[in-house]
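=== RUN LOG ===
request id: a7f3
mode: sequence -> structure
chains: 1
length: 520
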Amino acid sequence: MFCEKYKRVCYADSDLNFLVDISNVISHSQDIYKDLERVLEELCEYLKAQYSIITIVDRNCDRIMISSAYGLTEKEKKKGIYKIGEGVVGKVVDTEQPVVIPDIAGSSEFLNRTGITFDGDKPMAFLCVPVIIKNEITGTLSIHKTHPGITDFSAEIKFLNIVGMLIGRNISVRRKQIEELDELRKENMRLKGAKLFKPENIIGNSSLMNDLYNMIERVSSTNTTVMIRGESGVGKELIAEAIHNASPRASRPFVKVNCSALPETLIESELFGHEKGAFTGANAMHTGRFEVANGGTIFLDEIGDVPLSMQVKLLRVLQQKQIERVGGNKTIDIDVRIITATNRNLENMIKEDTFREDLYYRLNVFPMYVPALRERRADIPMLTDHFIDKVNKKNGTKVKRVTSGAMDMLMVYSWPGNIRELENVIERAMILTSDNVIHSYNLPPTLQTGFSSDTIDKGTLSNVLEKVERQMIMDTLILTGGNMAKAAVQLGITERMMGLRISKYNLALQNYKQLSNEKS
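=== RESULT ===
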């Protein structure tokens, strides 16, 4: 039908049918990208347009890009990237208002970034409307259309706005996909570029150890006091050393003190030093461990074994950063980072008044837990290889590998002595092997199982249970002197059931009665 007002074809009669058709396409869409391009193709056919484009706003990068288009090549689509406010598309996004360029050839606003061509005999209009979902602009819908000189495109703009509303949800989903993909690319690039921190002196790649490495990396750059908790033999000293080596104090001294190995009478002198003549045997001035560690790190292992009298003096060091040598009256300023370790329950010791609560809170600023070996079994093969290399160099041996049976035994053992025990077990096995291979029989008896020692009960579950039942009945008959009634009560069964089992297992009651008489 011809419209007298606009002197051109009127779309009113067919608009509704077209909108119903594309609404069905969108609502049943299984492939967002493909179906949007189909809608754009039908839109161009319906409005007699040459190109139609959907752009998406990427808020992460503050840019607008072409998502779907009809009439453009893939190369041209990739060129369609705009900043918000840039060109006609950027202006529509910025203002959230439609823009009409009646003739793009004479427009400075139209950037033609995609490089499309148009018929110079007829003007080409560019109509662009915003696509808004829930009061947020998600992109734009636009067409390029040649015309004989139309000046009023209000009907097309209204129609495009309706189409934009229909495809808005699909555009929003597509936009989310693009933004998520972009975030994944950024994260991938970040992970590729990031150098994962791993201390050189520690072996292990399990998730628990990687979490520990992350904590070491974070605390190393600070001067925070660290308390390392964990069972004996897990490598707390190595953790302390790793913190020091990764810190700005790495070039300064790292002093280790085993508090449990120092007699109570000497611990103060060892930590703070003493003047000449301070006590019997003090023939010369002695520099304490804190002074030696000045500018660096001091590691106080087994801090829970420090006597209460010494805890008071340690508290002063933490609070004032000063020490005094035994027998001296000169206050010495020190700059020392303190790392402590213990396998004892300090919280219980506080309740028992054997560890000062104020010192505990001074030391426990940044607690770290080192997992036991049984909690990080995935690291056992790597640790085993490390200890084999270490012992080969130490003893001049040439052990090459561990058999699968021996490795299975290493993996299932509970390791109460942790890494220290594993190292000792490997060294022992390397001494015992005769073919440069560690076998299951080279491992100590504590690691042996019924399977590895070939002593596991053979047969079905029923057979094994029968053996156990027979042995229990025999033991009870011995205990009751062959008295079947007493044995039945002892085992919690009826006398009839007892008789049936005695018959089943061919047990002679007189033998047990005779045995009882002999004992009497």
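=== NOTES ===
The first strand starts at residue 2 and ends at 3.
Residues 385-447 form a domain with the Helicase, Ruva Protein; domain 3 fold (CATH 1.10.8.60).
=== END ===
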